[in-house]
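Note to self: keep these together.
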Amino acid sequence: MWNPRLSDRFNKRLIRVIGQMDLSPCNGCDECGLRCAAGVQVARQEVDSVRRFIDESPDRDSIERVLAQDKTVDLGDGVTVKMCRYRDMERGGCAVYPARPLVCRLLGHVEWMPCPIEKFEVAVKTPDALELLDEYSNHERHTFEGWDEVSAEC
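Structure:
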């Protein structure tokens, strides 16, 4: 998760926040995956990290399978939602879980983004997350699709 392109202070906070998280209730759980909608904004460094993960993955065929899936979910009454491109619609889970963006990591682990299925009895408080997000807000962010457009323009 260490990324030399981000500020040293940010990287140190990121490592500290991840270390403060108790991921044991999440082990094997995919229930929050229903919240993995498209349109989440991420920093360039996160997109680069995901791309590196895919390029280096020994299971690239599995990731390509996930990318080829229809991500549209019909909620009824004419309402549809588009899921994240990395959401495995057939098997559940995230195809890039080890390289997932910060916002995905924080879901269920900070009090203002509580676990959507209440696996944690009370909102978790990760002490340094607010400072981390404050610095993160200074980074340019787009959706994955938006970063694709930016890359195509270069």
